[in-house]
Amino acid sequence: MEETDREAVATAVQRVAGMLQRPDQLDKVEQYRRREARKKASVEARLKAAIQSQLDGVRTGLSQLHNALNDVKDIQQSLIDVNKDWRQSINTIENLKDVKDAVVQHSQLAAAVENLKNIFSVPEIVRETHDLIERGELLQAHRKLMDLECSRDDLMYEQYRMDSKNTHDMNLIHTYFGDMQKLSDELAKQLWMVVQRSLVTVRRDPTLLVSVVRIIEREEKIDRRMLDRKKQTGFIPPGRPKKWKEKMFNILERTVSTRIEGTQADTRESDKMWLVRHLEIIRKYVLDDLLVAKTLLDQCFPPHYDIFNRLLNMYHQALATRMQELAAEDLEANEIVSLLSWVLNTYTSAEMMGNSELSPEVDVNSLAALISQNVVDQLLSKYMSTLTSNIIGWLRKALETDKKDWIKETEPEADQDGYYQTTLPAIVFQMFEQNLQVAAQINEDLKAKVLILCLQQMNSFLTRYKDEAQFYKEDHLKNRQYPQCYVQYMIAVINNCQTFKESIISLKRKYLKSDMEDTLSISHANMDATLDIIAKEGCSSLLDEVFMDLEPHLNELMTKKWLMGSNAVGTICVTVEDYFNDFAKIKKPYKKTMTLEAHRRVVVEYIRAIMLKRISFKNAEERKEGAERMIKEAEQFRFLFKKLAAGSGEDTEGLCDIIEAIAEVIKLTDPSLLYLEVSTLVSKYPDIRDDHIAALLTVRGDASRDMKQTIIETLDQGPSQPNPNYVPIFKEITVPTLTVPKLLKIRQLR
């Protein structure tokens, strides 16, 4: 207390010191005193009020505790009195056991009396119920069945209450009502028949379906009531719970499965398109059934049945099972495509689950896959394997068919521009197109794989095509009269190469994504190279054909007969032009190449004839005559090949210039200028060899051995500056060594 007083005094001193810090504040001391007095009085009043309130609360609490004590004492006395009375009434309760038994017996008898009418009329009610079921009056039949079951269940329950172990009486009741179970089974059979045909019934007689649903709902309520009583008493009538709602859904599920499986009307043996027909029937049936379920069936069932979604799940599961069964069969390639296309595309398309009339209840994005990705991959792998074998077989068959055309006695067909062709490119690429279109029905990835496969097999096929064209040429060389249209069909083979090139580009442009272009660039280059080889060899074989016919006339060149006025070159030109009338049916890229090659080979053969030294001019007059003839014939060749190359834009002058340059060497009259003329020739055509110069000087006929040696040695020492645009031609020409037989042959030619 003293500590509190000291703290109060210290606080007061502090407050006073805070108030009286300046001299002018002393005048307000009285004012400060009154203010503090008021505050003190206010605090004391609040303190008194608080203490008074606490005292009143304590007084009230003590009064309530006193009353509670009195109540506890009264209750204790009452419990003592009750205990005393209970002990005194034990004997009385034991004396009332007979009354209790009488009450139970009375309850059972009352139940028996209440059901007495039904008990005696059971056979009659059974007959009536049976008749109602046969007439299809299912609601009334079920009402009577419910009455019979209620009577039986009440009797059995009372018997159970009286003596649950008395199985004899229970069996007696059960036997008496035995026909009732048969009625229940018969009624259920009728219900399940309606449920099985629910999608048909709902369109013809929706009332019947509603009656069936009402009966099932009644049975569900009875099942729930019986299960609740079992929890309370342990008793449940025989045959309960019936679970007819669960059975209804099971029957619907079996019906859906049977409907899906039953749509297969054909087999592979009877119809190659059996799977397509089967899947189309499934699509139509499922779509029709779901539309009926949404528009009509949903109205016949209570909302909590969620009948549409339940049916949707049943159809989806049945379809998944069926698709897995089909996937497990040994399907052919086209059947695999049909199945995958249906599963991956048709199922979720607007033709089926994506139909606008099924939305928004059906969300195709939430539907699970009908077959797993693993099964899809296995089917695709099998498809690619089968397709590979099929393509190889198709290509082999197409080539064999084309080869048969090569030996026909009629010319091949021409396209709209007049170029010879066979049907091979069209057949091959039509097959590729069909397979790519089929693959595109499944997905882009498969389409890309099929395209790569087609081009890979095309690569291998072109190698076989090249070999067969070579065999065709070799067979012809054995007998040039057979086949009769060899030239025309070889032209068709050459043209096919260009068609193949264009078709490959078209196929890639149509089906290949730009990001995969690099993947196939090497393969494409290889195919182009192979096609170029086939075309080049074909052109070469045709030119061989030409030069085999020209051989007798080429042998006349640079002989005494030629010098005396042979028309060999005229015949050569006519023959070449005649052949090139047929070669006009060759497409431009190859015709242009062939014209240049023919020009080059004619010039080479002409120069070779010079280098064969068949003639040696005796004097200047013969040299002049021979040279002028060579210049004239070079002009004939120039005119011919300019005509044949018309419109190609190619320079055809240079090759014939070689003949004219050689003619100038032969024509030269002053031997002292021979070295200069020969050196000019060598500078223009640097691939000319010493033996060529020696042969040329031999043909002139006026050059001695020493002169030849001097010219050749001098030329060997001179610098060579070849023209970068010059295409070597002399390297193909071999100068023969003069043996005795050859000398005799040359003498005969002269």
Automatic annotation (TrEMBL):
Q: Enumerate the InterPro entries for this protein.
A: EXOC3/Sec6, EXOC3/Sec6_C
- Acetylation as UniProt keyword: yes
Its principal location? other
One GO MF term attached to the UniProt entry:
SNARE binding
Report the locations given in the UniProt record. Answer: Cell projection, Growth cone; Cytoplasm, Perinuclear region; Golgi apparatus; Midbody
Query: Has the keyword Acetylation been applied to this entry?
Result: yes
| GO biological processes | exocyst localization; exocytosis; protein transport
GO CC terms on record? exocyst; Golgi apparatus; growth cone; membrane; midbody; perinuclear region of cytoplasm
Source domain of life is: Eukaryota
Cross-referenced Pfam families: Sec6
Q: Which UniProt keywords apply?
A: Acetylation, Cell projection, Cytoplasm, Exocytosis, Golgi apparatus, Protein transport, Transport
For this protein, the record's Gene3D superfamilies field holds: 1.10.357.50, Exocyst complex component Sec6, C-terminal domain (1.10.357.70)
Provide the assembly information.
The exocyst complex is composed of EXOC1, EXOC2, EXOC3, EXOC4, EXOC5, EXOC6, EXOC7 and EXOC8. Interacts with EXOC3L1. Interacts with BIRC6/bruce. Interacts with MYRIP. Interacts with SLC6A9.
Q: What does this protein do?
A: Component of the exocyst complex involved in the docking of exocytic vesicles with fusion sites on the plasma membrane.
Family, as annotated: Belongs to the SEC6 family.
This chain belongs to which protein, by name?
Answer: Exocyst complex component 3
Which organism is this protein's natural source?
Answer: Serinus canaria
Gene name tied to this protein:
EXOC3
